[in-house]
Specification:
mainly alpha; globular; two-stranded antiparallel sheet; 4% strand
Length: 230
């Protein structure tokens, strides 16, 4: 849902505030939910987003991310007791990705749908193309202005990205996604020119800070704010 750059910006604030020792694994976890590989028949991704983002449906048939499903399957105290510290940081990053997406849907996507309601109803595909183009243009401008952005540099340098964490993803999924993301942002940042979008730099800065604050509160409610293992 949120762009990769937004996830990395949130991840950087979190691993600093939480003093996460294994930042590489935490950063990787923050990108992993978006690491599905295109299906051979061209109809979707493996795994499907409903699986990688732990979708559930409410009584009105509206889908939402249910981080509780993720916790039950991968991040209970029993799981974490046997995880290495690297594994613990990876799955912790995965969880914060899901929480960031939930906040992004509420604070960014819903208002966009309300502002462009006519377009959203008449041509959903064009609506999504329009707002995602704006999101990525803001990402490119951010990276061009911050070429040494730490979390992005961490993601660039991660080695040995064979998936050993989750059997829902193919073995090569993480490395394929990393290469795609690096190429995508390198080309975009190199060619972008400053221009206005419907989201301002200031609005995105506020989103990142407020999302981190909300996630920290969510973690306290989940008894995860002091997440590191002894």
């Amino acid at each position: 849902m949120a762009s990769w750059m937004i996830h990395l910006r949130v991840a950087q604030q979190l691993y600093r505030q939480l003093n996460i020792e294994f930042a590489n694994e935490f950063v990787l976890g923050n990108i992993t939910p978006d690491s599905g590989i295109p299906a051979e028949d061209g109809t979707g991704f493996v795994p499907e987003k409903s699986i990688s983002h732990f979708y559930a449906w409410d009584r009105n048939g509206i889908k939402y991310i249910d981080e509780g499903l993720f916790i039950q399957q991968y991040f209970t105290p029993e799981h974490r007791f046997v995880y290495t510290k690297e594994e613990d940081s990876f799955f912790f990053g995965y969880l914060t990705h899901l929480l960031t997406d939930k906040i992004w849907a509420r604070e960014i996507v819903l208002p966009a749908k309300e502002r462009q309601n006519e377009l959203y109803r008449s041509n959903p595909e064009l609506f999504w193309d329009t707002i995602k183009t704006d999101w990525y243009d803001m990402d490119f401008m951010y990276l061009k202005s911050n070429p040494s952005f730490e979390a992005f540099q961490i993601y660039c340098r991660i080695k040995n990205l064979k998936n050993t964490y989750m059997d829902i993803f193919p073995e090569n999924a993480f490395e394929e996604r990393r290469q795609f993301v690096l190429d995508f942002y390198a080309n975009g940042a190199a060619n972008i020119e400053e221009h206005s979008t419907y989201l301002s730099k200031e609005e995105l800065d506020v989103f990142v800070t407020s999302a981190v604050n909300e996630i920290m509160e969510d973690l306290r409610c989940l008894n995860l704010a002091g997440h590191r293992k002894n």
